[in-house]
Amino acid sequence: MRRHGYRYSHLLKQPNGGAGGGVKGMFVKLAIAVIVLVICMLSLVTTLKSSTFSPSRSEINLETLWESSASGGWRPSSDPRSDWPPPPKKTNGYLRVRCNGGLNQQRSAICNAVLAARIMNATLVLPELDANSFWHDDSGFQGIYDVEHFIRTLRYDVNIVERIPEISKNGKTRKIKAFKLEPPRDAPISWYTSKALEKMKEHGAIYLTPFSHRLAEEIDNPEYQRLRCRVNYHALRFKPHIMELSKSIVDRLRARGHFMAIHLRFEMDMLAFAGCYDIFATKEQEILKEYRKVNFAKKKLVYEERRAIGKCPLTPEEVGLILRAMGFDNTTRIYIASGELFGGERYMAPFRSMFPRLENHTTVDNTGELAKSTRGLVGAAVDYMVCLLADIFMPTYDGPSNFANNLMGHRLYYGFRTTIWPDRKALTPVFIARENGRASGFDEAVRRVMLNTNFGGPHKRIRPESFYTNSWPECFCQTPAQNPADVCPPKNISEILESRLQGSEIIDDRSIPSYLASLTDK
């Protein structure tokens, strides 16, 4: 279904009420219209500038997109590269955290919890996963992740227990009660080494809740960032039955050739959060506004402004138009990862007419296991794995620590796997021109925008890009290295870490002492 194009005439109508209020309201609305128009015109000029001066038609090589991006000698590596002592047997106390949000927001919080435990020299209690109202799922950490693998993988980094043990004194047994603290958002390391640590030493245990975005993302310590990667990409492994189910779905999809996975973020919660209501009928707008009122902070959001700056999720039709302009045809096989699409089939029909070979985890899963839990954490976990292993992944909306951001980071770490990441802000004026009847040159304009995006290769992280979206270069090494900091760790780094954990001498490998010493001295 097409969005309505911009229509500014209604902004100039005199509202009911006094003359002063009417004139003031008119100027406010006119100012908004002018701002939006300027943004769109600047974006359109930038997008089409290269088309105007280039006689050649831009082309996107689809064959290369079905393969991983060029690595430039880089490979994933999150092992320590400098002196990394094992966790001490006696720690400062226990750290409990409650990770709120959806599956992937919780995943980022778990990474932060492990790092916080390392920073405070604390014993981490297995993180608690919030059974929130959206997911209606109380599986918990043990129901989603492989606990034994998690603890074993991180044994060189932190001590982890499943629960705070009881202590015995003078023949009596008692529980340690964790002191409850609410960390500041994006708290610096200093907060953990001062206030949090002080309370931990005083009470023996602290309970940090809520724990979403409660540790600064950008930390000037590559070893700490690499620890986050070890948690995210190595320690956090889904339970065997989820991994097996995911593999069976991917095997069935791949048996018929290449496939693409699209995270179609067109659900009620995201549309309400983004404030993108105007393409819907009045009744649907009321539902979205009520959801926003109940679940999000009050904020005035103007649809035209939000869309102009790229803050509205792409509609299913817009996704189809982008893919078609890039050269994908109706034989392309697409796996759709999403919850319940708001507006239903009415909004999917245009996309389905362009790309009829659509699948999701319930249509591919012939065991019926997921039919009962398509909105739960298990369904989200399977979608995550299928999108991770897909030949191409395309998110339609990105936000802090969500499904798309984490997946883009994981696919980068997994071997620079192709990601189609639409620049919504640059595409908006192209779509608006088409909606207003100026369809000539639409496909070319879309290709120009897409050729300016990154398809999954190594690239510098620039704000607001998240560390969880792009952990390069901290969690990668290069062969041959152009920079000493990017030298890959020795092949027997695991033996070194195990030796130190057991308290014995480092294995006599001539390359290791000099390697560690040289990096430690820098």
TrEMBL record:
Recorded metabolic or biological pathway in which this protein acts: Glycan metabolism
Keywords from the UniProt entry: Carbohydrate metabolism, Fucose metabolism, Glycoprotein, Glycosyltransferase, Membrane, Signal-anchor, Transferase, Transmembrane, Transmembrane helix
GO biological processes: fucose metabolic process
GO molecular function: glycosyltransferase activity
Protein name: O-fucosyltransferase family protein
Family: Belongs to the glycosyltransferase GT106 family.
Subcellular location: Membrane
GO CC terms: membrane
Residue intervals passing through the bilayer: 27-48
Keyword Transmembrane in record: yes
Top-level taxon in the UniProt lineage: Eukaryota
Predominant localisation class: membrane
Membrane topology: Single-pass type II membrane protein
Region: Disordered, residue numbers: 69-90
